[in-house]
Amino acid sequence: MADKKIKVTLVKSLIGTKRPHRATVRGLGLRRLNSSSELEDTPAVRGMINKVSYLLKCEEQE
């Protein structure tokens, strides 16, 4: 499972969101709108994505 990758893109603004959600987005390696990051598919990363899923677009890579 760890050999898979997930491409995460920030599609909504962080303005008006809770501070822990902003910190989670930064932890995923995203800085500004439409920035993307390619991450390992681990349970920790999946949990972070689930927490802020309303701000993100996710695609599975191989």
Explain how this protein is built.
The protein is an alpha+beta fold and about 60 residues long. The chain has one domain: Ribosomal protein L30/L7 (Ribosomal Protein L30, Chain: A), CATH 3.30.1390.20. The chain is about 30% helix and about 25% strand. The chain contains 2 helices and 3 strands. A 3-stranded antiparallel beta sheet has the order 2-1-3, with no helix packed on it. The protein starts with a strand and ends with a strand. The model has no long low-confidence stretch (mean pLDDT about 95).
Write the layout of secondary structure elements.
Elements: E1 5-10, H1 19-27, E2 36-40, H2 43-51, E3 56-61
Antiparallel strand pairs: 1-2, 1-3
Q: How many alpha or pi helices? A: 2
Which strands sit side by side, in order, in the main sheet?
2-1-3
CATH superfamily: Ribosomal protein L30/L7
Q: Look at the helices and sheets and give the structural class.
A: alpha+beta
Helicity range of the residues? Answer: 25-40%
Mean pLDDT: 95
- Under CATH, the topology can be stated as Ribosomal Protein L30, Chain: A
* End-to-end distance: 11 Å
